Amino acid sequence: MADLGLSLAVALASPGRAADHFWSFMEDRSVRLLPHQFAAVFFSTLGQLVAGRGDPAGRRAALAVLGRVYRRFDLQPYHGTAVAAALVDTVRRFAGEGWEPELAGQWELGCRRALRLAERAAGALGDGPHVTFGEVEACEAAADGVAVLTVRPMRRVRYLPGQALPVCTPRLPGLWRWYSPASVPRPDGRVEFHVRAVPDGVVSPVLVERVAPGELLWLGPASDVGLSLEAAGDADLLLAAGGTGLAPLRALVEQVAASPNGRRVTLVVGVRTLLDLYDAVALDKLEQAHADWLTVVLAFSNDHDVEPAAQGDLLSLALYHHQPGQAFYVCGSPRLIEAARYRLPAAGVAADSLHLAATFHRALDSALWVSRQRSAHAAHLATVLEAAGDGSSLCQFRRDTP
């Protein structure tokens, strides 16, 4: 039986040559859509999406990347014929024994469907940060199965604390995962990601165990994933972080510190054992620097050697510290998010004060994500129009948008 995934996997065994052929195929036919440096990103991401590879969150990340590329380079529906022909010819050329004649029609049909999805994503995302590349400057083994990656983007990455970026390693071209920066945007432009090697995962073990300083990562456009501080208004915050879900919530703490407005913040960090607490130094520095409004609480779900007050699961200790009127944020594994979705409202947490990180494992999560991007795009455009006054500078804005 014909297998799209197998044919793509064989073709991507030579990712550079395959991407070059894909780009040259279109250039030879005077279809100049993409700069050459983005050929590998576009070809591999489109191919993975057509082949249906990756989990739901990874496919949404890939779609965000394709949508922004579609928008940035002004792809049009009529380009679909040339793109599909280039994709089919490239896979056929490099798939070797993984190619079967009936795959041509499947690849062409799948490509057209994926491009229609990319067109819709482009409309939702609007203008904004583009795909860029970043060099890994440091890869620190912070705990068992956890790495802290420091990346220096070639172009400054634009994001807000709490947002997430699609990240891809060229070791696994076209397979994207969401990761949130662990700080507010830094003056030097460097971005810090916290990565846990997920058991049976495809991408995260490579990022933790194999990626080394000097390698490049592909970085997609930042997206709102439900952790925006603006949604809380001026309310006090209760932040519940499970594992590497600490990264975006630590960034929110830094955002509050940069513009203090009198709100109090309680950050509850949940891990299994003391050895799993990978960011203790940074947490201690934060608490000492902002002791007047920040409280850090540790929750150990499976460590009987810590003090009794720190023993318990994350949600139990977070509920213990919850106060009426607080905005309640939760970020962590999909399992944690699903537990919080049902357990916290049942414990009395108001629905309008509960902010859960998107997991994309439910259709509603994906619908909410699209809605957030549309809202963010509309708000951004309104700001630009207001700043433009009579509209005289709007064309300049469009030219300057990366």
From TrEMBL:
This protein's source sits in the domain of life called: Bacteria
Record's protein name: FAD-binding oxidoreductase
Cofactor(s) required for function per UniProt: FAD
Identify the PANTHER family for this entry. Answer: NADH OXIDOREDUCTASE HCR, PROTEIN RFBI
- Keywords, sorted A to Z: 2Fe-2S, Iron, Iron-sulfur, Metal-binding
Please state every residue range assigned to the domain named FAD-binding FR-type: 129-238
Which InterPro entries does the record associate with it? Answer: Cbr1-like_FAD-bd_dom, FAD-bd_FR_type, Flavoprot_Pyr_Nucl_cyt_Rdtase, FNR_nucleotide-bd, Globin/Proto, MRET, OxRdtase_FAD/NAD-bd, Riboflavin_synthase-like_b-brl
Q: Which Gene3D superfamilies match?
A: Globins, Nucleotide-binding domain of ferredoxin-NADP reductase (FNR) module, Translation factors
SUPFAM superfamilies documented for this protein: Ferredoxin reductase-like, C-terminal NADP-linked domain (SSF52343), Riboflavin synthase domain-like (SSF63380)
